[in-house]
């Protein structure tokens, strides 16, 4: 059965694999059950059931009878769960634990090392260390070739393509096409569909909608062979986006509705699986409780027998009392230890749930931004489009602050955000919008502000940049923006902003909202500001 499950998981038939595990788990030994649970953790992660996957991994990690290979696989899978939920520290800790197992038992490398390097490369890429991630991806490729690891080789080509994104488009495309070729050799339909989607997105990003449409049509042609609903929904959504760019509104709407229906079906599937998992967990807890009660009854029977024997042997009564007292203390100590372990486990679960909440809030903000972009594309009035752009930038400014702020169970109002990184992301958002070409210069030290200071400051910066892009008239062709933020000895923050415009044109009527936002945010900062044409100086306390 294990080989059958591994084959089904290899070809992404996760639903059937999960049904087989749940129906047959009770027939196997503890060691075999651990193997099934390791595979089940991976399946739950693939379905997006991260809470259930995390809880199952917690039970596995606490199992002292787990083999080294089982521990290795579960540490790598937990690293993925933490990566998905933006817990970089925990992700790295799991990878380090897996690396230690390889050091102790290098014979485990043959079947597992390529996947470990892939996960490690993904960690560094997600956390901004692109050079390190790319080096690890190349190391994974070399190792996979040395051991003829055909299963993981397409994945390696995929992450090598991601490593060349926006830096070498030709190499990026070559790696994607190589991954597609390797998946075709494996007859992996789900992965082939996914690669067609990736290639379509590549050309879509380059605005080559003809080639993008060709690849997405190839994916649609295979959609009937797909059992993974979110893969299938993604390709219909991609087709809708292409049709929209080609001004084929009816087709775009058709594919969008189809994608929405499949996403809904996928969400229903997730819900049903979650309900089943809750039922299985309940039965498991009930069975464990009954076993504990049986053990307790056996223990009580034994104590009663001992008590009768002790009554018969009066000379041993005193020794028996001492032994009972010692056992009582030991039991209390064990209970305290168990309670502490339960509290720790509960804390970790709450931390995971809070991070999941934060992840979903970020997703909701991304949906809002997408809706604004979609509404903008449908607007015919240029003035409305500009207003949608301004609304997009304002919400994007809030989104960036949300992404940089780490929520946790110990959350309090004294949490800080690194302002230099936040400011640079706001400038980069305007720069990449393409509304107007400009250069910018940011001068500040490593300053961290509380979250209730950061967001008003970010909104002020956004309005100032927007104002410069709309109104500045420099002598040269290139608009230049200058931003400076310093901390004074008095404990104040001083912000200076200006552009190289030679004239100051400001329509009070049209830009009243921008002025209102600036003045409102300065008031929220409990600060003051002065303006001389396009030169702004804002001072506020750092309390």
UniProtKB/TrEMBL annotation:
Query: What sort of enzyme, by top EC class, is this?
Result: transferase
- Keyword terms: ATP-binding, Coiled coil, Kinase, Membrane, Nucleotide-binding, Phosphoprotein, Transferase, Transmembrane, Transmembrane helix
GO terms assigned for molecular function: kinase activity
Q: Which Pfam families match?
A: HisKA_2
EC number(s) from the headed UniProt entry? 2.7.13.3
Asked whether the keyword Cell inner membrane is assigned, the reply is no
**Catalytically driven reaction(s):** ATP + protein L-histidine = ADP + protein N-phospho-L-histidine
Coiled-coil positions are 322-360
InterPro entries (UniProt xref): HATPase_C_sf (IPR036890), Sig_transdc_His_kin_sub2_dim/P (IPR011495), TPR-like_helical_dom_sf (IPR011990)
Q: Where is the Signal transduction histidine kinase subgroup 2 dimerisation and phosphoacceptor domain?
A: 356-431
* Transmembrane segments annotated in the record for this chain: 304-321
Name assigned to this protein: histidine kinase
What organism is recorded for this protein? Flavobacterium gossypii
